[in-house]
């Protein structure tokens, strides 16, 4: 295990809903090291999404500290957080969030547009490498509506890789996909993890969570269980157990 | 984000919604085109009036007898005999801003040659008269000062009069015509001037020495009008005051009395006549401007729709590192692009429409370069102004909410 990428200490988040204060997170301590593959689990309303928003620097904690790659996020302004997201984070969403009617390549290039240090030619090169990493080079000129759900999610993963982030945050990235495609996507994540990428993954599916290296379980704004996955499943084995045509014989 | 990337994103966004972008632009196109065409028509009519008035004479100043009061009764100005030949000589001598001066006396009557006759007006002036009124002689000669002194019965003839009383192909020079039974020899033919703005035929005239009109036709010793020509357009206002002061002095008018004459410069005439078309221009411009405003509101409307539609895109852009300012600039660039492209198309169609109006309807048009420049700037301003609020709405979105927007 390497150095700490994410260090969260006594993190709290309150929301004011009308008269009522909702305590979404009530003192979270979490450390994620470089090269880990962490699955965050929990029921709806357990605070896992709030946690992911804060980890993703989209939201600020009410109190507590959060260090992302040795940068103290709580002290940053809105714009500084945007730049931090651009340089250090990769997002993968449940609903892909690709720009419609825009080619896969251009979708992957998108984060680099917000990095003024990267020139146009470099941009295309890096984007092509990222598409190669998700094995979609042959579809780079296809628009999202010409791609299957799994392919769209792979484009989204390529997009999250393109800025060489210190951590990839995935929010129910397999939530919209069938079992087989889910496993394919997970296989991609595992592959990236083996190459050294740190991945934080929110899911509510146990079998998906068992593909990660560590599980963190949330309930009512607390972490109630945190454990290394002892019998980590190999996604290739799972894939072989499912017939290629999904059993529709 | 640099400008090139911003432009690329904006162009892509517009291309994704070509028809919508085009329809939004159309408001601006129509607005700008109508501003340019309307102002061109307004300016054209103003310019044609100005040209006509300036063709009446070179920096001309007209002195007319003023309204006179007799026992509290206002008399018509023509009844006044306040101007004299001595006034003309005094102006020539004492007014340094005046280049030329001439008396004018006129009478109307019947002109007769052989079996033909026609009504016309005879104008009397001195040897400067043609120069002041910017008239030239196409054949024959002008009359000399000697002929003015001896009230010679010689005349210059306008083209309309020739057409009225001479057979075609007859050279009028040297022929004798009769005006109110006085025989007059034609010594020159005046160049054609056509109609003026007020529909008056400027070629229906005879010009003779003023002495001839005074002594042989009207039997009067005063003159009806004094025509003078200022040294330059700039000198015409000082010429005006010089004449006014001189004549007040010569006519023994005390400080509390009104002038018994009236001095007008051509410049003032131009102003008087062009003020009408100025009002017209402003009116047309305002109407066209309103359509431009409506076009701008159209942009705002579409930009709001676009921001709402693309809420998730905005959320995504923010989550991958777009700052508020990047999002603001993205939408602002889009609206500016719509209005500038619309503006350019509008300018071109406005110029085209002006050409069409001038060639099909034969209206005088004058495209003002300032109007073109101004419409372009106004378009950019419209893009910024009407794009600002939708863009700010986009920039102020919360990325978490935007990403979850359905």
Structure description:
The complex is a heterodimer of chains A (249) and B (406). Chain A is of the alpha/beta class. In chain A, strands 6-7-8-3-9-10 form a six-stranded mixed sheet, sandwiched between helices. The relative contact order of chain A is 0.17. In chain A, 33% of the residues lie in helices and 28% in strands. Chain B folds into two domains: 3-52 and 272-404, no CATH class; 81-259, no CATH class. Chain B has helices spanning 3-16, 18-55, 85-94, 129-132, 145-149, 159-165, 210-218, 236-250, 266-309, 311-319, 324-360, 369-395, 399-404; strands at residues 60-65, 68-70, 73-75, 98-113, 116-125, 137-140, 154-157, 176-179, 182-190, 205-209, 225-230, 261-265. Chain B is elongated, with a radius of gyration of 33 Å. Chain B starts with a helix and ends with a helix. At the A-B interface, helix 2 and helix 3 of A face helix 1, helix 10, helix 11 and helix 13 of B.
Short description:
The complex is a heterodimer of chains A (249) and B (406). Chain A has 249 residues and is an alpha/beta fold.
Secondary structure elements and pairings:
The complex is a heterodimer of chains A (249) and B (406).
Chain A: E1 4-17, E2 20-33, E3 37-42, H1 48-55, E4 63-68, E5 71-72, H2 78-88, E6 89-92, H3 104-113, H4 120-133, H5 149-161, E7 167-171, H6 179-194, E8 198-202, H7 206-209, E9 214-219, E10 222-228, H8 235-241
Parallel strand pairs in A: 3-8, 3-9, 6-7, 7-8
Antiparallel strand pairs in A: 1-2, 1-4, 4-5, 9-10
Helix pairs in contact in A: 3-4, 3-5, 4-5, 5-6, 6-8
Chain B: H1 3-16, H2 18-55, E1 60-65, E2 68-70, E3 73-75, H3 85-94, E4 98-113, E5 116-125, H4 129-132, E6 137-140, H5 145-149, E7 154-157, H6 159-165, E8 176-179, E9 182-190, E10 205-209, H7 210-218, E11 225-230, H8 236-250, E12 261-265, H9 266-309, H10 311-319, H11 324-360, H12 369-395, H13 399-404
Parallel strand pairs in B: 5-10, 7-9
Antiparallel strand pairs in B: 1-11, 1-12, 2-3, 4-5, 4-8, 4-11, 6-9, 7-10, 8-9
Helix pairs in contact in B: 1-11, 2-9, 2-11, 2-12, 3-8, 9-11, 9-12, 11-12
